[in-house]
Amino acid sequence: MKNTLFTILTFLICASSAIAQVEFSAQARNAVLVGEKFQLVYSLNEEGSDLMLAPLNDFNVLMGPSVTSSSSTQIMNGKVTRSKQYTYTYILKGTKPGKYTIQPAKITVDGKKYTSNAVTIEVVKDEGARQKQEQQNGGQSSNGFSKDDLFIRVAYNKSSIYQGEPLVLTTKIYTRINLDNISDIKHPDFRNFIVQDIEKSGNIEWNYETINNKQYNVGVLEQKVLYAQRTGEQVIDPMEIEFLIKQRVNRRSTSIFDDFFNESYRTIKKRVKSKPIKVNVKPYPSGKPANFNGTVGKFNMKVTTSQNQVKVDDGITIKVEVSGTGNHKLMSAPKLKVPTDFDSFDATVSNNLKNTVSGMKGSKTYEYLIIPRFGGTFTIDPIEFTYFDPSAKSYKTITSKPIVIEVEKGESNGSNNNNGGYVPGSVNREDVKFVGKDIRYIKTGKTVLKPVGTFIFGSTPFILGYIIPILLLIIALLLNRKRMHENANVHLVKNKQANKMATKRLKKASAYLKEGNNEAFYDEILKANYAYLSDKLFLPVSELSKDKAATLLSEKGVKTETIGELTEVLDTCEFARFSPSAGESQEMDKLYKKAISTISNIDDQVKK
């Protein structure tokens, strides 16, 4: 009975709190054409009455209000959530150009009056209709438009940035003519920049803008975030787009029926180019901390442990989560210094990132596994993470608290067995300095001896000594004939030697790794992969890209996971070549092994 009353009381409290928060808002398009129909929508989260609109003298009211409602109730973990939605829709039409403000509306809910927000709408001339009429009257040039009727602009949010600071490029299309499609886009090569695309949902959304007293349809084609990897004045080449424009062509005729039936269209290609962009990339200020690895932005760090009281040989996970906005992909794993009585393993990295106009936003998590091998109380030094904040123009260091771990001795830890033999864990690793290896094993096993004067003539080995060379000669001739036939096929030769040539390049990369030449190492890994793909896919390196390689490999039967590993290797090399961080030998060694494994997997999976 008590539980029932408590549930009813909870439901009533949640319901009353939901009723207390009334939201009344208005929304409409920012810009419309003269004579164009559009919606003015008022939204209310409770049932209301006596909706009163401000005078709409500047618009024609074609229909309204059209009222719709919806409601829902959710019960989750004992919590009841109710929601209602009422919408009042009007259909309006602008009568003359200008910028107009629709004043707030009022509505009554439970005896109280609530006011919406005001809405500003710009009504612009329909220049497209005028131009269409001119085209029908024969008043257009050979192409029907000028350079001012169609152009593109690449806007950038900053003209001066720090190295590693995000630079946002927004490509906009300005047009006064009807576009049919885009046939080709030529992007700049973005030298000395790392580029990330900002995802767009759906098609291009068009708005209206007035430039030099002319009305344009304006749409955002794409947005990119760039991270500069070289200082000084950087020039970004123009972007080129080829548009397809569909034009109406009327054939001259003396009959009005011929004019109607002979009307046709033609498609014209128009290539437009944006202006180049100059950006000043500033170096990092002086006083750079020793543990700074090129991370730029604003970040927070959270360090947690799976457990602080364990037994010997129990695993402990230390999780370091770095969250915020910046260039996460150039971030290196924070240093974790563990006592010598622990076994430690490389960090496992997971990303939860999204590209935004402020840079990469989200978190990067490093999970370290450590295993204690001796009992006692141990302290892990604080973890430090240093980054550069471009808005404050200073370096900032986040320091965690020390991690104290108590390790309980196991059943045999710290003691000897009954026979006096050594028991693992009874000796502290710090006490073990050196173990000599001055005793070698004595060879054991049966020894075969032969009598003195034994001859091989006429024996089985003697006969086989004639037969085996003849068989080997025949096999060699057949293999040589097959090799000559295969060598005549250039593509087949390149296909077979692709793995061998890639292995040679990877050996060269291994030599750079041992020398500590990080940039040459990543460059050689990148070249090895692209050279291998060129030979394997029968394409010149100049025509290769990650997307095209992924498509061709998929057609040849390579698994999606293997293609993903290849893309990850290429991305890592492209990022690391320009990373200001010195690089970690363990990470580079893992990348080297992954490159070998990926090429081997592709070679096994690809269809000949």
**Gyration radius over CA:** 37 Å
Q: For the terminal residues, how far apart are their CA atoms?
A: 75 Å
How would the global form be characterised? Answer: extended
Q: What is the share of helical residues?
A: 25-40%
Task: Count up the helices.
Answer: 9
**Poorly predicted runs of 5 or more residues:** 13-19, 132-142, 414-427, 430-436
What percent strand?
A: 35-45%
Tell me the number of strands: 31
Largest sheet: 5 strands, antiparallel
Oligomer: single chain
Helix/strand-derived category reads alpha+beta
Q: Averaging pLDDT over every residue, what do you get?
A: 78
Polypeptide structure, described:
Helix 7 runs antiparallel to helix 8 and helix 8 runs antiparallel to helix 9. The chain has 608 residues and is an alpha+beta fold. It contains nine helices and 31 strands. It has helices at residues 2-20, 127-136, 256-261, 460-487, 490-515, 518-537, 546-555, 560-578, 585-605; strands at 24-27, 31-33, 37-44, 49-52, 59-76, 79-94, 98-102, 106-109, 112-115, 119-124, 150-156, 160-162, 166-175, 179-186, 193-197, 206-211, 214-228, 232-236, 240-249, 264-273, 277-282, 297-305, 309-311, 316-326, 342-344, 348-356, 359-372, 376-380, 384-389, 394-399, 403-408. It starts with a helix and ends with a helix. The model is unreliable at 13-19, 132-142, 414-427 and 430-436 (pLDDT under 50). The longest helix has 28 residues, at 460-487.
